[in-house]
Amino acid sequence: MKGLQLLATGGALPGRVVTNEDLRRQVDTSDEWITTRTGIRQRYYCAENEDAATLAIAAARQALARSGLTAADIACCVVATLSSPTATPSVACRVQAALGLPENRPALDVNAACSGFIYAAATAHGLLTTLGGRYALVIGCEALSRMMDPTDRTTCVLFGDGAGAAIFELAENTPFVVTLGARGSEAIRAGGPAACDTAPITMDGKAVFRFAVEAMPRCLQTVLDRSQKTQADLDWVVCHQANSRIIDHCIKHLHAEPPKFYKNMNRHGNTSAASIPIALHEMEESGLLRPGQTLACIGFGGGLTWGGMLLTYEGRK
Ligand code: COA
Q1: Residue 187: per-residue pLDDT
Q2: Which alpha helices (DSSP H) does the chain contain, by range?
């Protein structure tokens, strides 16, 4: 089977930086509480004129430019988000129009909350395999600040906004290993039937923590088992950046090497579906990704959902 190689990434962060100190003025919290419980020090919020789609478009433009491909090369556009400004048009359709992607190709949004990027990449792989085509644009983008109750200290300190985009190539001699799962639960809930702001994010933090520390190592182990690889074969593990302690639990449980686990929640908070592609983009920008490297990406979150996949980084064409 052909698998997915990562060719290039793009990223977009909104204009407003919100520090723990800023939040301390808004709710009864402290930098010390947030940092020790989550590892988060700041996050970005959308300004008035920004939303999940504007961020997605900016990240996608950058990824496409860096890939050395043109819009005509892109065979499908799949966007992971739970905070699209409109139910329709989808963010993917807005990206199609903004980048001038050919009209005879699919463009769709996928909502699997914080596992969304893994679900979207798996969807893109399926579309390339069934419809034909070589290159896919896969984006994760969120404007969670629009879905939060700013007076609820149990959630407003956790989430942030942003977008990351990836150009994948369906390539020969590349393993395709993916694991996806779901368990219907209201442990994280957001959005109502009419408008997002009618039902802000609520969460049973402790239940979600218990779920995450079980799901994350299980997904990583499944990816390794299915690809017949060991942790030593991985150059990087890029997990959903919900909380530093969740990643530390996973490292401990698997007796893994901490430096292989990229962490950036200190700068971004939890950006749900955007967190893995934002991390990939930062890693590419800072030269951490080298052609030929093998990565495992692991997502978990609302739904509840989880997912893991093996990736090879190839770099631009
Ligand atoms: N600042 C200060 N105190 C806060 C607070 C905040 N932002 N949020 C909650 N508290 C208080 C609680 O009210 C509670 O007070 P009480 O003991 O007087 O009732 C106390 O801190 C402890 O709360 P608790 O919920 O037990 O904290 P915790 O150790 O479980 O940490 C989370 C809370 C949210 C950090 C933790 O449960 C977690 O990380 N869960 C997973 C969340 C997540 O990652 N979700 C997304 C997954 S995709």
Answers
A1: 87
A2: 20-24, 31-38, 52-67, 91-99, 116-131, 153-156, 205-227, 244-253, 265-268, 275-285
Is 114 assigned a catalytic role? yes
Atom of ligand 1 nearest to the CA of 208: 41
Q: DSSP label at 292?
A: T
Q: Please say if the pLDDT value at position 236 is more than 70.
A: yes
Helix pair angle (52-67, 91-99), 10° resolution: 50
Query: Percent helix, strand, coil in the chain (nearest 5)?
Result: 40, 25, 35
The CA R_g of the chain, rounded to the nearest whole Å, is 18
Q: What is the pLDDT of residue 198?
A: 62
Q: Is 243 a catalytic residue?
A: no
DSSP bridge pairs for 76: 136
pLDDT, tens digit (0-9, with 9 covering 90-100), for 9-25:
999 999 999 999 999 99
Residues 176 and 312: their CA atoms lie apart, in Å, by 10
β-pair partners for 167: 8, 137
pLDDT computed for residue 23 by the predictor:
97
Q: Is 283 helix (H, G, I), strand (E, B) or coil?
A: helix
Neighbouring C-beta atoms of residue 221, cutoff 10 Å: 16
User: Is a pLDDT exceeding 60 seen at residue 205?
Assistant: yes
- Look at residue 190 in the predicted model and tell me its pLDDT: 87
**Ligand 1 lined by 38 (C-beta under 6 Å):** yes
Q: What is the pLDDT of residue 152?
A: 94
**Mutational pocket test of ligand 1: of 31, 82, 206, 214, the residue with most ligand atoms within 8 Å of the beta carbon:** 206
- Cβ atoms 309, 225 nearer than 8 A: no
- Taking the centre of ligand 1 as the mean of its atom positions, its distance from the CA of residue 175, in whole angstroms, is 39
pLDDT at 315: 87
Q: Is the CB of residue 146 less than 8 Å from the CB of residue 104? A: no
d(CA 46, CA 13): 8
Classify 9 as helix, strand or coil: strand
